[in-house]
């Protein structure tokens, strides 16, 4: 009987040991973003970027010389409440990091608050949250949080790059502000007035309108209002279908406007809308654009990504988000979130768009910003067509992360 008990006990211990070994060899990361609804296509693009990077990290040995990253997927449904439910499901499955950002700043802010509460109540089981696309300056400003890291330039940084460009663009004289009615849309308008107005005091702001997000099917009435104002340019934070439908309405009306935006090239259908309208100049800002000269590492990554996924590569910052997390884990020499978060502060990372740094005081990544315009392929300034069209991207100006960096009101509370 004693021999049987000993044998059973040894078998149980063996199973437990094997289970622990498997757990130690896996670092679970939750992707929480919109995978359904009107902006699902954007969420899917972001997910594919993250998946590619995680697979590449694992193919090269993972982190800490053998621990593999496991990516779990959750649908935010573009809702703070749904995202918090997804976070709880992710916690139940043992995640140690969250990657998010596409669902909007209000969703990310809710996730950060939930993560902060969980971490304060569960020492030793903390979670790090990586934000690749929600660019509310408050997230790294007054509402900064030790557990939150932003790998995208925030709204103020992006508008600073656009303002620098508009300063040298005298044909921009009368500006209308048309934006989605939520936090980001309001901030894009506010920083537009502030920073563009500072760069060009002679510019007239001739109107401002907010519209419901993701619910407008026909932008013709909005375009009519812009035309009546006499505007030659529009500052718009619209993205996804709201941007594409707005461009279509302006084209249908024969209104040749200039648009200043933050992520037009990363919004499916935008280039197609411009090519079909055959009018309108959409200028946007990002860390890189397809066909950009002088960035061979990004070009090589884009080609490798297309070869493996069959899809177009759009955003180095999303690809680098899990890579920065992996670099911090290796720097920390540990999977413990507190050590990883501390290692990420002031981390310098040699990305495909150049060296970037995670600023310690507010956890804002200092990343280059390239102002570029959707234009017809000419073989010189525009060499690559996009979305099956003969339109691509023309580089207008490029700024380093330090050149567009803004001050911060963050007063970081560290554990």
Automatic annotation (TrEMBL):
Keywords: Amino-acid transport, Signal, Transport. Residues 26-365 form the Leucine-binding protein domain. One of its GO terms (biological process) is amino acid transport. Residues 1-23 form the signal peptide. The keyword Transport applies. SUPFAM superfamilies: Periplasmic binding protein-like I (SSF53822). Belongs to the leucine-binding protein family. This is Branched-chain amino acid ABC transporter substrate-binding protein.
């Amino acid at each position: 009987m004693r021999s049987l008990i000993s044998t059973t006990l040894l078998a149980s211990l063996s199973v437990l040991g094997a289970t622990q070994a498997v757990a130690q060899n896996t670092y679970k990361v939750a992707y929480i973003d919109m995978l359904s609804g009107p902006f699902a296509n954007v969420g899917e693009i972001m997910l594919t970027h993250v998946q590619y990077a995680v697979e590449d990290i694992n193919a090269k040995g993972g982190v800490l010389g053998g621990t593999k990253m496991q990516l779990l997927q959750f649908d935010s449904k573009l809702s703070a409440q749904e995202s918090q439910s997804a976070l709880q499901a992710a916690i139940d499955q043992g995640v140690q990091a969250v990657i998010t950002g596409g669902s909007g700043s209000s969703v990310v802010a809710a996730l950060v608050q939930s993560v902060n509460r969980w971490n304060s109540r569960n020492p030793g089981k903390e979670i790090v949250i990586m934000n690749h696309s929600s660019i509310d300056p408050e997230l790294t400003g007054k509402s900064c949080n030790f557990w939150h890291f932003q790998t995208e330039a925030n709204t103020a940084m992006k508008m600073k790059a656009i303002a620098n460009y508009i300063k040298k663009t005298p044909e921009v004289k009368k500006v209308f502000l048309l934006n989605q009615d939520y936090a980001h849309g309001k901030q894009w308008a506010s920083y537009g007035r502030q920073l563009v107005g500072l760069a060009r005091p002679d510019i007239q702001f001739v109107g401002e309108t907010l519209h419901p997000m993701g619910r407008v099917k026909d932008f013709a009435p909005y375009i009519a209002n812009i035309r009546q104002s006499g505007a030659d340019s529009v500052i718009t934070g619209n993205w996804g279908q709201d941007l594409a439908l707005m461009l279509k309405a302006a084209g249908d009306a024969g209104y040749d406007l200039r648009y200043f935006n933050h992520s037009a090239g990363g919004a499916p259908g935008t280039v197609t809308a411009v090519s079909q309208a055959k009018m309108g100049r959409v200028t946007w800002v990002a860390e890189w654009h397809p066909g950009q000269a002088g960035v061979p590492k990004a070009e090589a990554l884009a080609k490798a990504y297309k070869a493996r996924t069959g899809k177009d590569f759009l955003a180095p910052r999303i690809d680098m988000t899990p890579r920065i997390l992996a670099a911090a884990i290796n720097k920390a020499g540990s999977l413990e979130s507190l050590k990883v978060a501390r290692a990420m502060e002031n981390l310098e990372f040699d990305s495909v768009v150049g060296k970037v740094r995670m600023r310690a005081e507010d956890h804002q990544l200092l990343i280059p910003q390239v102002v570029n315009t959707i234009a017809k392929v000419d073989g010189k300034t525009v060499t690559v067509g996009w979305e099956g069209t003969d339109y691509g991207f023309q580089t207008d100006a490029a700024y380093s992360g330090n050149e567009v960096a803004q001050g911060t009101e963050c007063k970081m509370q560290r554990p």
